[in-house]
TrEMBL record:
PROSITE patterns in the cross-refs: PEPCASE_1, PEPCASE_2
Enzymatic reactions: oxaloacetate + phosphate = phosphoenolpyruvate + hydrogencarbonate
UniProt entry keywords in alphabetical sequence: Carbon dioxide fixation, Lyase, Magnesium, Pyruvate
General function of this protein: Forms oxaloacetate, a four-carbon dicarboxylic acid source for the tricarboxylic acid cycle.
Gene: ppc
This protein's name: Phosphoenolpyruvate carboxylase
GO MF term set: magnesium ion binding; phosphoenolpyruvate carboxylase activity
Cytoplasm as UniProt keyword: no
Gene3D superfamilies: Phosphoenolpyruvate/pyruvate domain
GO CC, alphabetical: cytosol
EC number: 4.1.1.31
Species in which this protein is naturally found: Vreelandella rituensis
A matching Pfam family: PEPcase
Length: 882
């Protein structure tokens, strides 16, 4: 990475930091800014190993008057958010630094050239891209800590940085941009960064649609235009007009697993919002096209369609505009609970696509290709990707909720108790009913409110066009009957609409049996008749890691995918794997390119679904340039995995992984499940107890409100450990596994061989290295010192830190490095730059947690808000927190 690139990032961090300092000085006085600078200086010198300054930092923070605690936390939080803006801006400008590892992210042009060298014909490249089906599924998991109003200001700040950089020859423009920058940073400082109320599922959906409106609406045609140009160079042809290698789906308003706030009414409202927003966006496109397509030359087909008019393109576009306006008015009326008395609306993608395609073909036929391939082509690409709904809405529900409906139904019909039946009897009953022509559910059946809600969801499916909906996901799926139950309810209540049904395998046991379950399912002729030889399966990352530890879970996920690929091949069924990844390493996170190429050979065969969660949506898709690069990374990775798949692991490596996972799992379970001090330690040392106060998302932090840590969702479980920088869920157990193997003959050599030649293992080690660099056991030790009294809990904390140190030694040994991130200096720099701003937030958070406990949770509004801001600031500083 060149010196100039580093300087660009540093300059922007300085510009933003200086502006924030002036804003704070205007508000609270220069004396307060000096106080902030003193805290930062103590933190910086403490980071250089000066123990005196570490102690002085803590003493300084503890002596701050109460009135200063909130503004101090806000100052450091704001700086970390501004540092993120500078880094995002840097990534957008210099597209080859996505993970700050030179050469690790190929650009698409280089990959196409490599694919050609490997013997793939130009036609093969075009066909592979044209038939590629990658769906990025936007989810609203509660990890986005920044309010939408601030996100909009941060996007505007990014635009100011661009204007300043581009003003060398126009100093007056630079001056104007600097003035606007000062104004925006002042606006951000004087805006409350913490929501006062949790967002509703509808709020979350609106946030998702805003990402499409503000970023993806521009990025999608730009991506296709770049792809077209590359294909023209490489293969001599464009991507087919209706091809959409990357599409978008959403869980926002459809994910009801453990979230009682997502109801059938909410799902219906979110679907209508998507229709309204799509109509509004297309109206802007159509108005622009009506203005631009003033030509009179047209082919006979278009003239016949438009009639005897001077401007046939405008005539067709006027008709489309009328129907699109009616569509927007219809959606608005439905949302308002009113009747719509307007004209016919656009209900399907083809009703919008066909007239635009007629215009495109006409322009090409009369020699106006340049005009056809301008704004009109951009709109056609948008229609291919977004349809008339913007996203496909997935639905997710837990398997037990479907079983409850069947239990109540069989009891009401005097057929017995469904829950008491074994799996064979359940399957036989469900297959018989799927084949039966008579209805199973009585018209006026009185069932429980829970079952009524499940049935109402299937009614929503029945009332929608199938292109508005994505996949029906069954969480905690364990048997073929879990899938058959959904198929039966869809048939009984869902009418003509039949969605793909994806069982979600997420615990270690479920992952180990996933292949066998799908094998039994596909062997059922009654089920095969329903699926058109296509099966989708979702792999859960969060709960498997929480259940078994990261190393054992990662290996179980890999083996499950291998098994599923083999099973579907044996049944001649097309498999799409749906990866339920989160933002953190502990939830399957990491650079997308490396993650996809580390999957088993054959598992990414031109199709892939993957969740994009919480704050990662903004980091990857929040701005057009960043979104463009993210789309290119996904397209590159799936194309490479399809045409140039990684080699299968050697049998010896598989045996090694079996042993490593076994040791790691035993060590993880020995602490998390079996040590009686673990749960009390977790509750004492982390902010888990106050996480519920942080209004991050619409979903409760627990699946059940009673019970212990086992009821916690994977996100708050990881968020809590991240806040104290121990990151425990992502590494616990790995140290024992690697250390034991390194102590055995040939251990180092085989681990290094696996690292160098097996993408799965190499990627795992890279993620572990980054995680170890972001973790900080000295900070965790301070939380323990401040918050833990019980000697046995302190003993456990000491042992955990010893395990961490043991793992770091082992990882450096395998990597043959003296320090972490030697080969990724920019990640190292990004962490080092942020630490002096995160460290004071850790110190303040530990202090505020202790005050909160001393006061039995009854602290002033300002202190409570300061505690929330420390959580938001640490999350912003560490970025992939959930």
């Amino acid at each position: 990475m060149s010196h100039d690139l580093h300087e660009s990032l540093r300059d922007n961090v300085r510009i933003l930091g200086d502006s924030l300092g002036r804003t704070i000085a205007d508000d609270l006085g220069q004396g307060f800014v000096d106080k902030i600078e003193a805290i930062r200086a103590h933190a910086k010198k403490g980071r250089q190993g000066d123990v005196l300054y570490q102690r002085e930092l803590i003493d300084y923070l503890r002596q701050l008057p109460e009135k200063d605690l909130l503004p101090v936390t806000r100052a450091f939080n704001q700086f970390l958010n501004l540092a993120n803006i500078a880094e995002q801006h840097y990534r957008a400008r210099f597209r080859r630094v996505e993970d700050y590892k030179p050469g690790s992210q190929p650009v698409l042009g280089e990959l196409l050239a490599r694919a050609r060298e490997a013997g793939n014909s130009p036609r093969k490249l075009v066909e592979t891209l044209a038939t590629m089906r990658v769906e990025l599924v936007l989810t609203a998991h509660p990890t986005e800590v920044i309010r939408r109003t601030l996100i909009q200001k941060y996007d505007a700040i990014d635009e100011c940085l661009s204007a300043i950089e581009g003003s060398e020859d126009y100093p007056e423009r630079g001056t104007r941009a600097q003035g606007r920058l000062e104004e925006l940073i002042s606006q951000a400082w004087h805006t409350d960064e913490i929501r006062h109320e949790r967002p509703t599922p509808v709020d979350e959906a609106k946030w998702g649609f805003a990402v499409i409106e503000n970023s993806l609406w521009q990025a999608v045609p730009d991506f296709h235009r770049d792809l077209d140009n590359l294909l023209l160079e490489t293969a001599g042809e464009r991507l087919p007009l209706d091809a959409a290698p990357l599409r978008y789906a959403s869980w926002m308003g459809g994910d009801r697993d453990g979230n009682p706030n997502v109801t059938a009414r909410v799902t219906r409202e979110v679907l209508l919002l998507g229709r309204w927003m799509a109509a509004d966006l297309y109206l802007r496109d159509l108005e622009k096209l009506k203005t631009e397509l003033s030509m009179w030359k047209a082919n006979s087909a278009l003239k016949a369609e438009a009639g005897e008019v001077a401007e046939p393109y405008r005539e067709l576009l006027k008709r489309l505009l009328t129907r699109m306006e009616a569509t927007r008015d219809w959606a608005k009326a439905k949302l308002d609970g009113a009747n719509h008395n307007g004209g016919p609306i656009i209900e399907t993608r083809d009703q919008l696509y066909a007239p635009l395609l007629a215009c495109y073909r006409s322009l090409c036929d009369v020699g106006l290709d340049t005009i056809a391939n301008g704004a009109l082509l951009d709109t056609l690409r948008r229609v291919a990707v977004f349809g008339v709904t913007l996203t496909k809405l997935d639905l997710r529900q837990e398997a037990s909720r479907h079983a409850q409906v069947l239990e109540e139904l069989t009891e009401a019909l005097a057929l017995g108790h469904y829950r008491d039946w074994d799996e064979e009897r359940r399957q036989a009953f469900l297959l018989d009913e799927l084949a039966s022509r008579r209805p199973l559910i009585p018209r006026r059946w009185e069932c429980s409110a829970e079952s009524r809600e499940v049935l109402d969801t299937f009614k929503v499916i029945a009332q929608e066009h199938s292109e508005a909906l994505g996949t029906y996901i069954i969480s905690m799926a364990a048997q073929p009957s879990d899938v058959l139950t959904v198929a039966l309810l869809m048939k009984e209540v869902g009418g003509e609409v039949s969605l793909p049904i994806a069982p979600l395998f997420e615990t270690l046991n479920d992952l180990d049996h996933a292949g066998a379950v799908i094998d039994r399912l596909l062997a059922l002729p009654g089920y095969r008749a329903l699926i058109d030889d296509r099966q989708e399966v979702m792999i859960g990352y969060s709960d498997s890691a929480k259940d078994a530890g990261q190393l054992a879970a990662a290996w179980a996920q890999y083996r499950a995918q291998e098994s599923l690929v083999n099973v579907c091949e044996s049944h001649s069924v097309d498999l799409t794997l749906f990866h339920g990844r989160g933002g953190t390493v502990g939830r399957g996170g990491g650079p997308a390119h490396a993650a996809i190429l580390s999957q088993p050979p054959g598992s990414v065969n031109g199709s892939l679904r993957v969740t994009e969660q919480g704050e990662m949506i903004r980091f990857k898709f929040g701005q057009p340039e960043i979104a463009l690069r993210s789309m290119e990374i996904y397209a590159c990775a799936v194309l490479e995995a399809t045409l140039l798949p990684p080699p299968a692991p050697e049998p010896q490596w598989r045996e090694e992984m079996d042993q490593l996972a076994k040791v790691a799992h035993r060590a993880y379970v020995g602490v998390v499940r079996e040590d009686p001090d673990f749960v009390p330690y977790f509750r004492a040392v982390t902010p888990e107890g106050v996480l519920g106060r942080l209004p991050l998302g619409s979903r409760p932090t627990k699946r059940r409100q009673e019970g212990g840590v086992e009821t916690l969702r994977a996100i708050p479980w990881i968020f809590a450990w991240t806040q104290i920088r121990l990151m425990l869920p992502a590494w616990l157990g790995s140290g024992e596994a690697f250390t034991r193997r390194l102590e055995q003959p040939g251990g180092r050599e085989v681990l290094q061989e696996m690292r160098n030649h097996w993408p799965f293992f190499g990627t795992y080690l890279d993620m572990l290295e980054m995680l170890l660099a972001k973790a900080d056991v000295s900070i965790a030790a301070y939380y323990e010192h401040r918050l833990v009294d019980e000697p046995s809990l302190k003993t456990l904390g000491g042992k955990l830190r010893e395990r961490f140190a043991q793992l770091e030694v082992a990882v450096l040994d395998v990597l043959q490095q003296e320090r972490l991130l030697e080969n990724t200096p920019l990640i190292r720099q990004a962490i080092d730059v942020r630490n002096p701003y995160i460290d004071p937030l850790h110190g303040l958070q530990a202090e505020l947690l202790q005050r909160n406990r001393d006061a039995d949770g009854v602290i002033s509004a300002d202190l409570s808000r300061a505690l929330m801001v420390t959580m938001a600031g640490i999350a912003a500083g560490l970025r992939n927190t959930g």
